[in-house]
Design goal:
The protein is mostly helical. The chain is built from four helices and no strands.
Length: about 60
């Protein structure tokens, strides 16, 4: 049986994302992109946690 990726391994795979892609993701997800993250770090952390959970769920379904 396949194992689900850990949150750390998912974060590690994100290192390949380009700055341009990260900027695009942030500006489409939050009203002011980087500024929103700086002003609301707890919301951002909560959203990242939910995203990692979603990635794990998709990984489980694909395996």
């Amino acid at each position: 049986m396949f194992e689900t990726k850990t949150k750390i391994s998912i974060i590690w795979s994100m290192r390949k994302w380009t700055f341009k892609y990260i900027k695009w993701r942030l500006t489409t997800a939050y009203p002011n992109g980087w500024k929103f993250i700086i002003l609301h770090p707890f919301i951002f952390i909560k959203d990242i946690w939910h995203y990692l959970n979603w990635c794990q769920m998709i990984d489980r379904e694909n395996n």
